[in-house]
Amino acid sequence: MVSLACIVQAITVILTVFTSPTGGQITNGGFASFCAFTGAILVDGHLLGMYCENNDIAIFGYNYTWIDLDYCIGNYIGMLRPQEFGHYSASCRGCIINFDSTLWLDCICPDLRHLPVHSTIDLNTTLFDYDGALGCFRVLGNKTREGPPLPNN
Ligand SMILES: *[C@@H]1O[C@H](CO)[C@@H](O)[C@H](O)[C@H]1NC(C)=O
Ligand SMILES: *[C@@H]1O[C@H](CO)[C@@H](O)[C@H](O)[C@H]1NC(C)=O
Ligand SMILES: *[C@@H]1O[C@H](CO)[C@@H](O)[C@H](O)[C@H]1NC(C)=O
């Protein structure tokens, strides 16, 4: 006879697999292969927006996605580092993004003595693409069909 505990456990496993962004196929990092860094923008030093591939492989589908990097990155005594709900923008200033083969976040952050120091982090170590939405840790950003109009520069 199948016990109630077994059924509850089975249901819990199913819910975990299908509802948790960290369940199964997702690990932290690796968005570099699936998102378009050209046209990526950083608003207010912490809101990151860009196009990322979704699961509509047949039509080569993309969505525009926003994630708040304050959910993903913290300031550890002057060094940006992956940290769930790290809220680096509360203490770091002058944040910008740069890209080559990966996307870098670059800020001035206070160190142990409250002196401003320069810090850079490879966001590919932290951000992942989940069906066209950027995510980190247990957080998923939103997505839309079209992004904002490109800035005139
Ligand atoms: C991004 O991260 C993924 C997963 O760790 C890795 O396979 C890939 O080589 C990285 N890409 C770059 C450009 O660093
Ligand atoms: C998505 O998130 C961004 C950043 O938080 C926000 O500005 C935007 O309004 C959101 N868009 C939708 C469609 O929810
Ligand atoms: C994401 O993009 C697909 C096309 O690839 C589109 O059909 C879908 O509506 C978009 N999702 C959202 C939430 O806008």
Automatic annotation (TrEMBL):
Signal peptide (from-to): 1-24
Residue ranges constituting the Cyanovirin-N domain according to the UniProt record: 41-134
UniProt keyword annotations, A-Z: Signal
Pfam families documented for this protein: CVNH
Name of the featured protein: Cyanovirin-N domain-containing protein
